[in-house]
Amino acid sequence: MLLxxxxxxxxxxxxxxxxxxxxxxxxxxxxxxxxxxxAATGRFSLWEEWHLRDGDDADHRLAYTYGYRRRTVTLSxxxxxxxxxxxxxxxAGEDVTVTLDGRRRRLQVARADVAEVLHVLGAPRHxxxxxxxxxxxxxxxxxxxxxxxxxxxxxxDVHRGAVLEPHAQRQVLGRDVRPRMNRFLVxxxxxxGFVLLYNALHACLPDAGTAGAAGAASAVVAPVxxxxxxx
Length: 231
What we know:
Elements: E1 17-19, E2 25-37, E3 44-54, E4 59-67, E5 72-78, E6 95-100, E7 103-122, E8 133-141, E9 144-150, E10 156-163, H1 166-172, H2 183-204
Antiparallel strand pairs: 1-2, 2-3, 2-7, 3-4, 4-5, 5-10, 6-7, 7-8, 8-9, 9-10
């Protein structure tokens, strides 16, 4: 696994129910970890995708993006569009017009690539194995994220969602699902910082055997012998 990190990183597990008891709820049924190389920079983008099923058996997606991109959590739900979108033909930077809520909306393709499956758990919406290639695209406007995927089985999934900040995650999902920072790494970093600071301060202090005034003789301390004895 890239970056030698545990999978999944997100604080979700198979069979866990997310949401509020008095509102929307969904259960984690499957998990897929992807990576894709950015054509412009050559760097990899990685993301985790949880497949959630609600009470109506709708396939919601909870995605956590990391790598060199800004870390974001996105929750989305399936939508049917009158327009046919093919992630394999979309290109990053182009504008695409789609119909949302009965209105024509212009979205920009933020990314379009073919992702490689790195890890699979449980039962995702489509059967996937490590090494599979999935055409993936994201179309964005300030208030919406549209994800389009083709896992190669002839069915293109379109999901509509939004980025959830930590407060929104707690309100909608019932918890902040971002990875916790490792306590041992934090403690180790703090200790290393203390050691560096101590060494820097110690290097600035005068030695104990050096006189405080310039030209003064260095003090000589004779070793202490047995009690009462003199050298």
